[in-house]
Write a structure and sequence with these properties.
The protein is about 40% helix and about 15% strand. By secondary structure, the protein is an alpha/beta fold. An eight-stranded parallel β-sheet has the order 3-4-5-6-7-8-9-10. The chain has a two-stranded antiparallel sheet with strand order 1-2. It starts with 5 loop residues before the first strand and ends in an 18-residue tail after the last helix. The structure holds nicotinamide-adenine-dinucleotide (NAD). Nicotinamide-adenine-dinucleotide (NAD) binds near residues 23, 46 and 193.
Length: about 280
């Protein structure tokens, strides 16, 4: 079985650095994809209430026969549930949908600075309660910019364990990653393959040939060697296996640098400062 390294979070909990993401996986395809991932050796699954497939993730985990304690499962708060009472209820509903009595990690999915009077602090305090009662073993945020984090650091008690943000070779996020490192907030990079858009890049395809790996494997290795946590998504069994088969080669420092130099500050997803979808 592939040895996936763990990252130790700021509360000493461990998280596998490579996981499996299920954004845009249809509910009817989710249990099969997650089962394939678990068989391939993934032990970390990233879902969200807004993905509409928590039930099926839970079903695949139960069917796998694996110990719940050997898995790391993340879910995220729906954008329409930021008011504290709604956030508490939404957390309960995520647990119920997954069929679990705890989550390894629960995140505020988006800061929504233009909604709820810009108040993500009271939402965070509701997550702090879930952490204190032990049902969320770690809590964190997603799509938070440095100033959103700065405000949480100033106005609440628990430092987020992670910030899950868009990161790929065209969006290296070095400034925000630096801020997170300074405050012991681990970075999770979402859409690590830019949904496939970086895989034809000549710098990446040339490196892939030289290390005898696929472009997707090279990009995932780049993320891991920079220290970020990633969870690529696929519903294709061969790709699911390909994306975890990245522990028998290493990129040189120059190769990591060459890929980082592709940065264009170009997002594939929404801008967290203006995203307001409920
Ligand atoms: P991704 O970068 O993982 O790309 C997935 C796509 O890349 C696939 O649909 C497929 O087209 C292609 N692909 C995957 N493996 C491949 C391979 N080996 N070879 C060739 N092509 C391959 O994109 P994603 O699903 O958007 O992101 C991954 C995970 O990040 C999500 O599933 C979700 O868990 C998380 N995410 C979080 C947020 C957030 O706001 N917090 C937003 C988007 C995604």
């Amino acid at each position: 079985m592939t040895a996936i390294p763990d990252i130790t979070l700021n509360n000493r909990q461990k998280i596998p650095q490579l996981g499996f993401g299920v954004f845009q996986v249809k509910p009817r395809d989710t249990a099969a994809a997650v089962s394939t991932a678990l068989q391939a050796g993934y032990r970390h699954i990233d879902t969200a209430e807004m993905y509409g497939n928590e039930n099926e993730v839970g079903e695949a985990i139960r069917r796998s026969g694996l110990d719940r304690d050997d898995l790391f499962v993340t879910s995220k708060l729906s954008n329409d549930a930021h008011r504290p009472g709604d956030a508490r209820r939404a957390f309960d509903e995520s647990l119920k949908a997954l069929g679990f009595d705890y989550l390894d990690l629960f995140l505020i999915h988006w800061p929504l600075p233009t909604r709820y009077g810009g108040d993500y602090v009271s939402t965070w305090k509701a997550l702090e309660e879930c952490y204190r009662d032990g049902r969320a073993r770690s809590i964190g945020v997603s799509n938070f910019q440095a100033r959103h984090l700065q405000r949480l650091l100033g106005e609440s008690e628990i430092i987020p364990a992670v910030n899950q943000i868009e990161v790929n070779p065209y969006l290296t996020q070095d400034e925000l990653r630096g801020f997170c490192a300074e405050h012991q907030i681990a970075v999770e990079g979402w859409s690590p393959l830019a949904q496939g858009q970086v895989l034809d890049d000549p710098t990446i395809t040339v490196i892939a040939r030289s290390v005898t790996a696929t472009p997707a494997q090279v990009v995932l290795r780049w993320h891991l060697q920079r220290g970020d946590i990633v969870f690529p998504k696929s519903v294709t069994p061969d790709r699911i296996r390909e994306n975890i088969d990245i522990f028998d080669f290493e990129l040189s420092a120059a190769e990591v640098e060459a890929i980082s130099a592709l940065n264009r500050n170009e997002r594939t997803g929404p801008d967290p400062d203006t995203f307001d979808w409920l």
